Amino acid sequence: MVGYSRLIADDIAGTSARLVRLRRVLIDPALGRYGGRLHSTAGDSLMLEFSSVLSAVRFAVEIQTRIPEFDDGEPPERRIRFRMGIDIGDAIPDGQNMHGDAVNVAARLQAICPPGSVCVSAVVRNHVQDLDLQFDPLGAVELKNIARPVEAFVVRLDRPAVRLQSRRLPSRSIVAAGVLLCLCVAAGTWWLMEAAGQPGGR
User: Fold this and answer.
1) What is the pLDDT of residue 35?
2) Interatomic CA distance for residues 124 and 119, integer angstroms
3) What does each C-alpha distance from 97 to 39, 93, 197 come to in angstroms?
4) 159-167 LR contacts (CB < 8 Å, sep 24+)
5) Of the residues 31, 63, 79, 167, which has the fewest C-beta atoms closer than 10 A?
6) How far apart are CA 130 and CA 189, in angstroms?
7) Is residue 54 in some structural domain?
8) Can you give the pLDDT at residue 182?
9) What pLDDT shows up at residue 42?
10) Alpha-carbon gap, residue 198 to 196, rounded angstroms
11) What was the pLDDT predicted at 33?
């Protein structure tokens, strides 16, 4: 969430109520529709698991395109915006947490993602060709504490229609999201959505 700490400091009750409503009305219902599962919560973060990379990307796109509906006349400094990063790879469960290179890459993609957008690795982009989405290339980017450059793309969200094909991919997806929703994606697709301007500590 862009400016999460400031919003909480300015109006903890109002900001918390808006986030609770956002969970109840938008995030949790979408999580159910796309087969996601909540793993853990920590402060302003959530860890969710999905059955496929298609589901994870569709979930992310729906959340990002519908978030503005919840501003409802709020002034610009009170608007809620997220940024999200998605990668694919194996992850190891550790209690309610997940560990893996893909988790770290997703967190770093989130950090470079424009607020209100979804940033994905090239392998994610290649796996979701069945979705009616367009991607703007960021090139091979150097990510903090990631040894290799990662080819990254930003999903074009000015084309909200998403077409889902009947086939499903075998990969598992975990999403770690943040409000800072840390919506992660595990053993398959990792997706981290974190408060813009509040990069995680991974």
Assistant:
1) 84
2) 10
3) 8, 6, 23
4) 159/132, 159/133, 159/134, 160/61, 160/65, 161/132, 162/58, 162/61, 162/62, 162/131, 162/132, 162/133, 163/130, 163/131, 163/132, 164/54, 164/58, 164/130, 164/131, 165/130, 165/131, 167/130
5) 167
6) 16
7) yes
8) 36
9) 54
10) 5
11) 92
Here the tokens at position 37 are 């599962």
Question: pLDDT tens digits, residue range 140-193?
Answer: 989 888 889 989 999 998 754 544 443 343 344 444 433 223 343 333 344 444
And the tokens for 157? 């969200």
Q: Cβ atoms within 10 A of the Cβ of 45, count?
A: 21
- The SS3 of residue 190 is strand
DSSP symbol at 23: I
Is residue 200 a part of any domain in this protein? no
54 lies in which domain range? 4-194
DSSP 83-114: EEEEEEE--EEETTEEE-HHHHHHHHHHHHSP
Q: Residue 107 in contact with residue 194, Cβ under 8 Å?
A: yes
19's tokens: 């986030």
Residues of the chain with pLDDT under 70: 1-2, 39-48, 51, 96, 159-202
Domain membership of residue 40 (yes or no) is yes
Structure token digits, residue 58: 């569709």
Cis bond leading into 22, ω under 30°?
no
Q: In the prediction, which pLDDT does 170 show? A: 38
**Structure tokens belonging to residue 45:** 């973060």
Beta partners for residue 86, in sequence order: 120, 191
Within a domain: residue 138? yes
Number of domain units in the chain: 1
